[in-house]
Amino acid sequence: MFEAKKIEPKLTRQLGTILSETGFINVLNKKYSLPIGSWAGTLGKIRSQSLDIWLYVTADISYKNLGFDTKEEYLKHIENLETEYSEFKPYGDQYIAYGQKPLN
């Protein structure tokens, strides 16, 4: 799916390098593994709510790309995610990069 649309899904992992190569200094590049689901307390619940909202908002363009025959089938799957979150205890990686622009 990403290749067909010429999207680089791993770009966020390279942001620190990109910042350094373009002249930024004091670059910090960090990965955080954050839990998804109410099993992990407040942070996990907020992350699952954010993910669920994103899945609902993008349903019209996503369900076919994700292999579902109908939008309704896709939406029903989303409704069951919290049960899966509790069972599998997933994490999602968040990449952060920033740097300073040199004064010269």
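That was protein one. Protein two is written in the same sequence-then-structure order:
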Amino acid sequence: KRCMNLSVYWVSEAVPLGAAALVPAFLYPLFGVLKSSEVAAEYCKDTTLLLMGVICLAASIEKWNLHKRIALRMVMIAGAKPGMLVLGFMCCTVFLSMWLSNTSTTAMVMPIAEAVLQQLICTGLADSHNDSETAEATEDEAGMSGSVSPMVSSQEDITCILLTKIQYLDSQYPTKRDHMICKCLSLSITYAATIGGLITITGTSTNLIFAEQFNTRYPDAKTINFGTWFIFSFPIAIIMLVLTWLWLHFLFLGCNFRETCSLSKKRKTRREMMSEKRIHEEYTKLGPISYPEVVTGVFFILMTLLWFTREPGFVPGWTSLFEKKGYRTDATVSVLLGFLLFLIPARRPFSSSSSSNDDDPLAPMINWKDFQRLMPWEIVILVGGGYALAAGCKVSGLSVWIGRQLEPMSGLPPWAVTLLACLLVSAVTEFASNPATLTVFLPILSALSETLQINPLHTLIPSTMCVSFGVMLPVGNPPNAIVFSYGHVQISDMVKAGFGVNLIGVAVVMLAITTWGVPLFNLTEFPAWAVARNVTGIL
């Protein structure tokens, strides 16, 4: 009961989530649920170090503008046609969000998109202004042949009229189609950030929460790592990316794909050419690729390769070279490479010119301020609080009790149980934060799976992914709020578009868990590691 009371703080957000995550630290010891030292140990886990290492790399990417170079290059390849422009921004956002947080990615990409949109709007306003001047000139010429022509008496009157027209035009988009393009591009970025966050364990905090809670509850299950998660989630992201793009295109741009997606230069309008010019100018400002960007890119590739080859499953990984097994995790790789970024100088060896603005020739790739600026300490405490809450549910027997209350669902097939769980969490997460929702539901769904003799991964993985689909309201997640703050979209637009994206996400996740997820995680059997946990819980 006391553990259930804690979940109220998480879902209601009566206090900041970071503060709510500290409640178990004093409440559990006071009520005799867990010792203070045991609760404290829950606040720093392996995934905490994994996140810290990734943030080091993210700090280097942002400091040396590698993210901007990647984004602009991908958009340049896609072109300035509205449909291809949206697809280009979505692709680069998905890629960046795989490695950076969804919030950071959205905050990085939106200014670039806004610059392109403003160029589109300004060009449209100029066209509208020129058209109105041409029309007035025609009317004046026609009036000259009549009896009386309306003349402007002074230069002040001319200035007043022009300012009035400009203010009127500035208060609106040039055309309704331009407004629709702005809506489509803005919403596509927040949806793409959500999709990209699904692909990797470090892509979003909810993936980290799931990985740590699953490995803590089922220590004998050696199934969840960077490689297996990527193999399962990458096809989901690709399918969702295509379907989401098609949905947004249909909703805001219509069905004329030949007009909006043509790569032919003959079909480009003046505004599209101006937008391309603006993108090229932004890319030119970055200059040639620098030494720190190369180092960051090498570290990025190296970290990914080491994650994939640690324990790939089908062949022995590099951890088999060590005598003691089980000592090295994905966090080992990320922290090691993150630490090296504090040591490697940002200036090219044996080079007389410096690539950085710092006069110190030995200045490292990143310093502590760079790391501190990006490190989401609230998320660290929030994730730790989730682990503490799960530990309290386990010790108090709350998880087992909830599982027994859900025994009437035993007549449902596994896919139906999973579908109900996905729909429930995707609905709740529209009004509560993603980490809070998942933290509350993970112990419940674990107990439910054990009670119904379903492989826990069959319900936990889809629910973890669907908890990220809070895309219908600005309060659903921070990327939504960032996009909404730019003023191109209204809540009604987010609800309409987000509802479709939500349905697409749930459908694709259900497709994945019932097809390629079955052989990947052996979902047809109730595993021995879950049987052992179930027996322990009952005892």
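The mean pLDDT is 78. Keep this in mind for the problem set.
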